[in-house]
Amino acid sequence: MERVDAIWRHPVYQEQLTRIEELEQDRTFCRHGAPHLLDVARVMWIGVLEEGLADELPRDVVYATALLHDIGRAAQYDMEEPHDIAGVRIAREIMGTVEDGCAFSPAEQELIVDAIGAHRGGAKAATTLARLLYRADKLSRPCFACAARPECNWPEEKQNHAICV
């Protein structure tokens, strides 16, 4: 997945991811670094396969969406800009300046940033990709095994209480 690797290597992506990891270094609750992003990508891809959507949603589009969906977290921590809004802005910048030959089409970019912008909005998202992202973002969290769960401020109905859902 050359286009996904180009996002990963992008200097803005690496700068933002490093900043997120620095800011969350002492965070007790769920973090938003590479392990979370890859978990979301894998859970999304499983959803694509389970729903028979692989012809509609290419794997690199799914993985790019997952890798970029929380990229606005540092802006949220530093400037109190909601991370979904900051994420759209930063994702556009990254996807608009990837290495030659690794660009997503304008339609793919719009699909990706729509999902990023909608990923906090709930399971009734307007696009299939946004719905899959919302679901995977929640399912990737092992709330059922988290020591910090009693102090978590996530609503009980959003917590993942089972290994398999």
Topology overview:
Blueprint: H1 2-9, H2 11-23, H3 34-50, H4 59-68, H5 73-79, H6 83-96, H7 106-118, H8 128-139
Helix pairs in contact: 1-4, 3-4, 3-8, 4-7, 5-6, 6-7, 7-8
Summarize the structure.
This protein has 165 residues and is an all-alpha fold.
Please, could you describe this protein's structure?
The protein has about 160 residues and is mainly α. It has a single domain, classed as Hypothetical protein af1432 (Orthogonal Bundle), CATH 1.10.3210.10. The protein is about 55% helix and about 0% strand. The protein is built from eight helices and no strands. The longest helix is centred in the first third of the chain and has 17 residues.
Offer a few descriptive terms.
165 residues, mainly alpha, Hypothetical protein af1432, 57% helix
